[in-house]
Design brief:
Helices cover 65% and strands 10% of the residues. The chain is of the alpha/beta class and 584 residues long. Strand 9 and strand 10 form a beta hairpin. It starts with a helix and ends with a helix.
Length: 584
């Protein structure tokens, strides 16, 4: 019975069956040509050489040259065609896994190492592709040749054939025995490789911390330790690989020696012609290669199965959020938001939000404040439907988000994260990422609102300046402003800002706030922040404490002694003075 991992992989192969059928036909013709060549060797010995027939010699040599050339051309054509088809099949698999990864929630990435995900997406599927490209086509040709050669060898001399296959059962036993051990060794090697990838990603992203902490030697030592464990796993796998592939082939080589001895005795006794022995030995020698190749394929399939299992572990991870059939497409969103008795817990036990309810009117600006870990960012994730609430519901314009399309929702709600993601491409492409068709005038307006236009214009290449990896060429504040410009450019109905000015100086903060206030106009805005000025600019403030909303109202009204809001922003007297300075 076919292993479930390979059975699932066949679903990617089926759409290409017509193109693969042509490859099989070409391989069949090529195999028939290869099977005919040893018979020509028999004729060469018996008719041309022993029979001393010059015309037979020329005829056999010409046929050898023609059929060898035909076999070569067929192998090249079928090999190139199969390589392309196999690459397309494996890309479909990689694409399916990539799309699935885009559906998984932040909770999945919080518990899964990025290096492990990348290893499976790249290395494991690459290993599957290697086995498919190098071994699968050879499997077709080798099986066809093996069947044909067995039939011809039995036809040439049955007793000699039985001698030739006498050691095959022992060889097969050795192959199966070591193949079982190989799977566990390969799985261990994949894990050690993923450990190295995760270590490199983590430490390279934190290079500044490593250097300023004088931890270079310590991290180098940790890297060496992971590499040593990888080498140990590699050597363990290689030892089993040599045994699983080499030992069966070594046993089969003994069959060739038996054929030489027995067949030679038959020729001496004149019960077998020299031509038949030469032809039989030609098949025997050619038979050894496909048998060893098939044994090697069996070993390769062990590594491919491990890779398939690792890929399926990711593809089997259930998305926490999915569209229901017939989901409603949001259009002309006004921007009213409602949370109704929402409960949510990241670990499914301790709630991050508990019985949270509030309404936001279209065009209203709401500030959400509270200590770290009180669930402020969770509100943004629920509104973007990166998660669904465990209980209760989130509504946009009266529509439960579970019943709307994700595309329509995320076209209507823009989010600026406190740690914005930027790409290693130009300023313009980063800004227009959510709106690729935006005009340059709109781009400049959004950038000006985010307080970045003068800075970008001063660069030698302006908007064509290429950012470093993850925006490393910019300061933290510049990255935030660029992310704000990207969000403003989409002109969303609801704008969610998670600590949008945390890394800005007060003057730049006011410039950014004035800019997005002008562009957003009457659009709904939710600001998650620890900054008092942002709270003052909001129409209303929601104060979160211990997973609950404990206070709600304008900042000026909440800024009185005894409130949680006042406690968050220092003494009420100092905050009231700040309020007056701000014109509140």
């Amino acid at each position: 019975m076919l292993d479930p991992a390979f059975r699932r992989a066949l679903t990617y192969v089926i759409p290409y069956w017509r193109r693969l059928l042509l490859v099989v036909v070409l391989s069949l013709v090529s195999t028939c040509v290869s099977l005919y060549l040893p018979l020509l060797a028999r004729d060469l010995v018996d008719e041309a050489l022993i029979g001393r027939d010059s015309s037979a010699l020329l005829r056999v040599v010409m046929l050898l040259m023609v059929f060898t050339l035909i076999g070569f051309v067929l192998n090249v054509v079928s090999g190139l065609r199969y390589t392309r088809v196999s690459a397309e099949i494996l890309f479909d698999m990689r694409l399916a896994l990539y799309r699935h990864l885009q559906k998984l929630s932040p909770r999945f990435y919080a518990r899964t190492r990025l290096g492990d995900v990348v290893s499976r997406l790249n290395n494991d599927i690459g290993e599957i592709q290697r086995v498919a490209a190098e071994a699968a086509l050879a499997w077709v040709g080798n099986v066809l040749f093996l069947i044909g050669a067995v039939v011809v060898m039995a036809w040439l001399d049955l007793r000699l054939f039985l001698v030739g296959i006498a050691l095959v059962p022992i060889s097969l036993w050795a192959l199966v025995h070591y193949r079982r051990r190989l799977e566990s060794r390969v799985a261990t090697l994949r894990d050690r490789s993923a450990d190295i990838g995760s270590f490199l990603i983590e430490t390279l992203q934190a290079t500044m911390v490593v250097v300023t902490s004088n931890a270079q030697a310590r991290e180098t030592e940790r890297f060496q330790g992971r590499n040593n464990r990888f080498i140990d796993a590699l050597m363990a796998m290689q030892r089993v690989t040599y045994l699983s592939g080499g030992l069966p082939g070594l046993i089969l080589a003994g069959s060739t020696a038996l054929v030489f001895v027995y067949g030679g005795q038959r020729v001496i006794a004149e019960t077998l012609t020299m031509g038949n022995l030469v032809a039989f030995m030609a098949y025997q020698m050619r038979l050894l290669a496909p048998v060893q190749a098939l044994m090697g394929l069996y070993t390769n399939l062990a590594t491919a199965k491990v890779s398939l299992d690792r890929v399926h572990e990711i593809s089997d991870a259930e998305p926490e959020v999915s569209e229901i059939p017939g989901a409603f497409k949001l259009t002309n969103v006004l921007g009213s938001v409602e949370f109704k008795n929402v409960r949510f817990a990241f670990d499914r036990r301790v709630p991050t939000l508990e019985d949270v309810s509030f309404d936001i009117e279209p065009g209203e600006t709401i500030a959400i404040v509270g200590e770290s870990g009180t669930g402020k960012s969770t509100i943004a994730y629920l509104l973007l439907r990166l998660f669904d609430p465990d209980d209760g519901s989130v509504l946009l314009d009266g529509h439960d988000l579970r019943g709307v399309t994700l595309t329509g929702l995320r076209q209507s709600v823009a989010f600026v994260d406190q740690e914005p993601s930027l790409f290693h491409t130009s300023m313009r492409e980063n800004i227009t990422y959510g709106c690729p068709a935006a005009s340059m005038s709109n781009v400049e307006a959004a950038v000006a609102a985010a307080g970045m236009h003068d800075f970008i214009s001063s660069l030698p290449q302006g908007y064509d300046t290429v950012l470093g990896e993850r925006g490393a060429a910019l300061s933290v504040g510049e990255r935030q402003r660029l992310a704000i410009a990207r969000a403003l450019l989409t002109e969303p109905s609801v704008l969610v800002l998670d600590e949008p000015t945390a890394s800005l100086d007060p003057a730049t903060e006011r410039q950014v706030l004035d800019g997005y206030t002008g562009i957003m106009g009457d659009r709904t805005t939710i600001v998650i922040s620890h900054r008092l000025e942002l709270a003052h600019r909001a129409d209303r403030v929601l104060v979160l404490q211990d997973a609950h909303i404990v206070e709600s109202g304008p900042a000026k009204r909440l800024l009185v002694p005894g409130t949680e809001f006042s406690r968050l922003f220092g003494s009420s007297k100092a905050n009231l003075k700040t309020d007056e300075n701000l014109g509140g």
